[in-house]
TrEMBL record:
Residue span(s) of domain Radical SAM core: 216-444
The entry's keywords: Iron, Iron-sulfur, Metal-binding, S-adenosyl-L-methionine
Higher taxonomy: Bacteria, Bacillati, Actinomycetota, Thermoleophilia, Solirubrobacterales
GO MF annotation list: catalytic activity; cobalamin binding; iron-sulfur cluster binding; metal ion binding
Protein name according to UniProt: Uncharacterized protein
InterPro entries the record matches: BchE-like (IPR051198), Cobalamin-bd (IPR006158), Cobalamin-bd_sf (IPR036724), Elp3/MiaA/NifB-like_rSAM (IPR006638), rSAM (IPR007197), rSAM_horseshoe (IPR023404), rSAM_sf (IPR058240)
Record has Iron as a keyword: yes
Keyword Ribonucleoprotein in record: no
Entry cofactors: [4Fe-4S] cluster
Occurrences of domain B12-binding (ranges): 1-148
Length: 560
């Protein structure tokens, strides 16, 4: 049986897909993992102009993709909502070429919007964690048994399993229990550099992936995650749907520190150039100190690689954790601020008041630039319900934040079926009116001031004068595209230079970093010129902060 897994994502480093691909390859040897990456359609011009990432992919390319997949017996697609339209187009064309292929759509989009995903020309969708559910489905599918009662799946009555189904009724099964830490410990490492990996290239179809493909997408970086789950319930986040499906998703689950360190070692055996790791956990810093300590000691003693922690929540920023992780190798963090307005933070249901944000920024800034690349703070702009005062509050907060830092600036993008989508509709906002890419940043005065403050804190008198030009995104106002182009170019250049200063090529895809590694410059720099704080005194760690977080450790014990 010819089986393929297809990932339609932003790049080729989707952590969830790689975990799933490794598990399926274990169940069904010979399964191909096929990547359709929109990264190759981007350009420096697009990045500088802040035009977003909506690639124009024509019917000829969709046909070429489908032709390369259509000889399968079973295809599992995975995509986020931003790539749902492209996924539907590929699925439709595959069905036209080969009506008998069995197709399943999984990943983030069918979990968040199952009612939309099931309308595609697929036989089934996966609405929860996929590994164990797919294992049950696959066994029944191969043995021609009834698989339509598989949990975490919806099935169409007219699909290939219709003889086992219930007439014309759509089959919506309940959810499996979430994977436990001990079960996570038994999973194979995410697929990375397997012989079965292929990538779509326009005009060539699906070709075997090589080192160059990884370099073009992720530079010298390795993207992964250690923990799953988030204690918060922010209305704009897709996690709200996961929590609605199972409240236990708020608990943080993860395998052992040993598993995590060995995973990175496994990837580096195939790709020795990997010189930086990025953890994309939703709430890495909420993991208790004792478990972070075990991780830090193993990482420091056996890997000695710099790593970045994304998804930092201000409430969990603590001096002792930062000292510990920075000693191990942490050299960069990314923290969500989203807004400096208490009104907007309440609207987003985000319990991180401005005072906590400022306190977190003080701790974070104390590690840069001596030990860290300037932290990146996420900001959401262009929300049509924001008032002028809300926008000004965000700008004033950033003016007060301890430096240095940079910003990740996003225009509001409403994920369907989230609390935010409901709240916006209740306020009469047409979501179709704000359906642009979250990377498409209009050159309004407020947005341009974000680029400015990310580079330089102006004198107060100048800042106050600039604040006079600030308007809410819903108000009529002048746009400054040329000034925006200049400021964005300077802002991006400063970000890149901050990384190059420490030979970090994780945000600069391409071969330049590889050549620097090849001649030994990256290794020499990390060994001789990278500064790290001393091992912190264990007796001085701060008490755990309790904000409704539950952490389940690998041995099954729960910290509450």
């Amino acid at each position: 049986m010819r089986t393929r897994m297809v990932c339609l994502e932003d790049g080729i480093t989707s952590c969830g897909f790689r975990k799933m691909a490794a598990y399926v390859a274990q169940l069904q040897p010979g399964t191909e993992s096929c990547y359709i990456s929109t990264e190759r359609y981007r350009s420096v011009k697009t990045a500088v102009r802040g035009m977003g990432d909506k690639a124009v992919i024509g019917d000829e390319q969709v046909d070429e993709m489908a032709q390369g997949l259509a000889d399968s017996d079973l295809i599992g697609f995975s995509s986020m909502t931003g790539y749902a339209d492209l996924t539907r187009r590929v699925i439709k064309r595959v069905r036209e070429i080969n009506p008998s292929v069995y197709m399943i759509w999984g990943g983030i989009h069918p979990i968040i919007q199952p009612e939309d995903a099931i309308l595609a020309d697929v036989d089934a969708i996966c609405t929860g964690e996929g590994e164990f559910a797919f294992e049950e489905f696959l066994a029944a599918f191969k043995e021609d048994r009834d698989y339509t009662n598989t949990k975490n799946f919806w099935f169409k009555p007219d699909g290939h399993g219709s003889s086992h189904g219930n007439g014309d009724q759509l089959i919506k099964n309940h959810f499996l229990a979430l994977m436990s830490p001990s079960e996570m410990e038994q999973l194979p490492f995410p697929q990375y550099g397997a012989d079965s990996e292929k990538i779509y290239l326009p005009g060539q179809g699906f070709v075997k992936m090589g080192v160059e493909d990884y370099l073009l997408n992720d530079g010298l970086g390795y993207t992964t995650l250690w923990s799953i789950g988030c204690p918060f319930h922010c209305s704009y986040c897709g996690n709200t749907k996961f929590i609605a499906n199972d409240k236990k998703y708020k608990r943080i689950r993860h395998p052992s520190a040993r598993y995590m360190v060995d995973q990175v070692k496994d990837a580096r055996e195939r790709f020795p150039h990997l010189s930086q790791v990025s953890f994309h956990d939703d709430s890495f810093m909420a993991i208790p100190y004792g478990q972070l300590e075990e991780f830090a000691e193993l990482w420091h003693d056996e890997l000695k690689l710099p790593f970045a922690v994304y998804g930092v929540i201000p409430n969990y920023v603590r001096q002792d954790k930062f000292e510990l992780l920075s000693w191990a190798g942490m050299n960069r963090i990314r923290m969500g601020i989203q807004s400096g307005s208490k009104n907007m933070l309440d609207f987003y249901k985000r319990p991180t008041p401005p005072e906590k944000i400022l306190n977190a920024g003080k701790v974070i800034a104390s590690f840069a630039p001596k030990y860290h690349i300037p932290a990146a703070y996420d900001i959401i702009m262009d929300n049509p319900i924001e008032t002028r005062d809300d926008v000004k509050s965000t700008l004033q907060l950033l003016y007060m934040m301890d430096r240095p830092y940079t910003l990740f600036i996003y225009s509001l993008k409403v994920i369907p079926n989230t609390g935010l989508a409901t709240a916006m509709k209740e306020r009469g906002i047409d979501l179709d009116d704000i359906d642009e890419s979250y990377l498409a940043i209009p050159p309004r005065a407020a947005n341009l001031m974000l680029y400015l403050i990310a580079m330089w804190r102006p004198p107060r008198w100048l800042w106050n004068r600039l604040m006079g030009h600030v308007r809410a995104s819903s108000e009529p106002q002048e746009l400054y595209p040329r000034l925006g182009l200049i400021l964005r170019t300077m802002y991006l250049s400063k970000r890149v230079l901050a990384h190059l200063r420490v030979m970090d090529f994780s945000i600069t895809p391409g071969k330049a970093g590889y050549y620097a590694w090849k001649v030994g410059l990256v290794g020499l720099w990390q060994k001789r010129f990278t500064r790290r704080p001393a091992r912190p005194d264990r007796t001085k760690k701060q008490p755990e902060v309790k904000v409704g977080v539950q952490v389940i450790s690998p041995d099954g014990m729960r910290d509450e």
